[in-house]
């Protein structure tokens, strides 16, 4: 699927497209892996029913009222969490007209405290869609191990749904959660 950037406003005028909204939830972290590798940020993704990685969220429809109301409904179903996502959390929109369907993806980011993020992780196992649509939450490793492959490079070589990998990389870059030279190396080494 080839996704191209489009403004949020223009995307709402497109005819015959389905709209999907997803959110990257993240939190600053002072934790260290093995007591020495800084975690810096906890970033949540989920393992989906199809075995691919993606972000919490899903398809929205006119009955939802707004994109954010639809996203909040989806997040509630998948995480059991009552996040209050708003238009101000919107990061980017992309459209794809390649079959099998015309699709617009709206991507949001939400910064929480580490305690709030951990509450979401604990509560997700009781969410309505846990074990069905969502197989579980995963944290994105934002470090690269000494071998140059372990950590973020290995994570980026997984199978992602739609444009979730691009959304992840763009968010890490624009929110400056990973330094640009490290991000470039992780992307390069993920193709091995």
Layout of secondary structure:
Elements: E1 4-5, H1 8-11, E2 18-33, E3 37-48, E4 53-54, E5 57-60, H2 67-79, E6 90-96, E7 103-111, H3 114-124, E8 134-139, H4 152-156, H5 164-174, H6 180-190
Parallel strand pairs: 2-7
Antiparallel strand pairs: 1-6, 2-3, 2-5, 3-4, 3-8, 6-7
Keywords: Nucleotide metabolism, Nucleus, RNA-binding
Enzyme class: hydrolase
Cofactor: Co(2+)
Describe the structure.
- With 192 residues, the protein is an alpha+beta fold.
- It has one domain: Nucleoside Triphosphate Pyrophosphohydrolase, CATH 3.90.79.
- The chain is 29% helix and 30% strand.
- It is built from six helices and eight strands.
- The protein has helices at 8-11, 67-79, 114-124, 152-156, 164-174, 180-190, and strands spanning 4-5, 18-33, 37-48, 53-54, 57-60, 90-96, 103-111, 134-139.
- Strands 1, 2, 3, 4, 5, 6, 7 and 8 form an eight-stranded mixed beta sheet that branches.
- Strand 6 and strand 7 (103-111) form a beta hairpin.
- The longest helix has 13 residues, at 67-79.
- The two termini are 22 Å apart.
- The mean pLDDT is 93.
CATH architecture: Alpha-Beta Complex
Biggest sheet record: 8 strands, mixed
- Provide the gyration radius in Å: 16 Å
Q: What structural class results from the helix and strand content?
A: alpha+beta
> So what's the CATH class?
Alpha Beta
User: N-to-C SSE series?
Assistant: EHEEEEHEEHEHHH
CATH topology: Nucleoside Triphosphate Pyrophosphohydrolase
Strand % is: 25-35%
- The chain-level mean pLDDT equals 93
> What is the count of DSSP helices, taking H or I runs of 4+ residues?
6
Compute the number of structural domains: 1
How far is the N terminus from the C terminus? 22 Å
- In percent, how helical is the residue content? 25-40%
User: Can you tell me the CATH superfamily?
Assistant: Nucleoside Triphosphate Pyrophosphohydrolase
| Oligomer classification | single chain
Low-confidence stretches: none
Shape: globular
Total count of strands = 8
